[in-house]
Amino acid sequence: MRGDSDASDETLATPAATARLLRAHGLRPRQHRGQHFMVSRRALDAVLDAAALDPGDVVLEVGAGLGTLTAALARRVSAVAAVEVDRALIPVLRDTVGRFPHVRVVLGDIMDLDPAALLEGLPAGPRKVVANPPYYLASLLMVRLLETPLGLTRLVLTVQREVAERIVAPPGGRDYGLLSVLVQFRAAARIAGHLPRSAFYPPPEVESAVVTMVPHAAPPAVVEDEAVFLRVVRAAFGQRRKTLRNALRAVDATITAEQVEAACRAAGVDPGRRGETLSLEEFAALARVLAPRLSPPSTG
After folding, report:
1. 233: domain CATH number?
2. Is residue 30 one of the residues assigned to a domain?
3. Are strands 187-195 and 208-215 parallel, antiparallel or unpaired?
4. Percent of the chain with pLDDT over 70
5. Cα distances (Å, whole numbers) of residue 55 to 127, 211, 297
6. In a shared domain, residues 203 and 252
7. At residue 286, does pLDDT exceed 50?
8. Most buried residue among 116, 182, 194, 244 by CB atoms closer than 10 A?
9. pTM for the whole structure
């Protein structure tokens, strides 16, 4: 639901306005929470542009903080579910977005909450995630949200620049790893822009980036058993310096070196390669060959 043309709530995205708001509530950023509040209108616009928002969108925001992004979202979409883990920030957040009846403020840790439940009862419309989460949480958050069947059409997160580069890295480079595969299997990812340290208060020690992820309608690689595929991928990256013939022994305690060698050959993959050189299709081929040889996962 769009508001009127006044954009006064978006002037929160300045160092002075953020400092005044914190002083008014007797608060300081909490380092152990990873709090870095957005204080740049240019950065805010970069996130909003990357989100490609439409009036009918429903947005899940994680790490709502003082409500700077929340208020900007509320002016552009039909509903926002804003999650914040810090109880001390909830009164500030409610003050900032209280005039928007279509904003749902939720106190809690997103890793303990059911994302689907957060969106229940909100209007029908394209579901998106737009967030400036704590950097320590960003990787776990994006993987969880992509793995959960939420019907998302787009995710936009501000993350540490190095994390962004890992997300979009192709096979064979030093940045390509487990996170690259977990995200790229679920979504088409790209870096929409870079943000300087000065875009946040307090400034983080690292540069930031805006990442967009558009979930695939179908995975880009044919995977018959997703659980096996993920076991193979995690084993391959468990010890990066190991070749596949050694690393894949970790897939199953019962598998032998000879079986790993045979599986690699059957999948058309050299067992002397390392996990960081394999494409999604090659991981999928290995998973298909290995699946009959693996014991069922423990349910205990």
Report:
1. 1.10.8.100
2. yes
3. antiparallel
4. 95
5. 12, 22, 45
6. no
7. yes
8. 244
9. 0.92
And the tokens for 115? 């994302």
pLDDT at 174 over 70: yes
Nearest-angstrom CA–CA distance, 18 and 171 = 41
Q: Is residue 5's pLDDT more than 60?
A: no
What are the tokens at 56? 């009918």
199 and 42 in contact (C-beta within 8 Å)?
yes
Structure tokens at 247: 């690393």
What whole-number distance in Å separates Cα of residue 21 and Cα of residue 15?
10
Peptide bond into 202 cis (omega under 30): yes
In a domain, 1, yes or no: no
For residue 248, what are the domain limits?
226-291
Residues 139 and 269 in one domain: no
CB atoms within 10 A of CB 103: 25
Residues in the chain: 300
Are residue 25 and residue 144 in the same domain, yes or no?
Answer: yes
172 lies in the same domain as 233? no
Of the candidates 278, 249, 279, the residue with the CA atom closest to the CA atom of residue 261: 249
232 is written with which tokens?
Answer: 């193979």
Query: Which one of 215, 249, 279 terminates a domain?
Result: 215
Phi/psi for 187 (5° steps) reads -155, 160
Banded pLDDT at 294 (limits 50, 70, 90) = confident
Kindly indicate the confidence band of residue 10, based on its pLDDT and cuts at 50, 70 and 90. low
Rg of the chain over CA atoms, in angstroms?
A: 21
CATH of the domain at 26: 3.40.50.150
The number of domains in the chain is: 2
Residues 123 and 174 in one domain: yes
Question: Quick one: angle between helices 161-168 and 178-186, nearest 10?
Answer: 60
Residue for token digits 């030093």?
A: 174
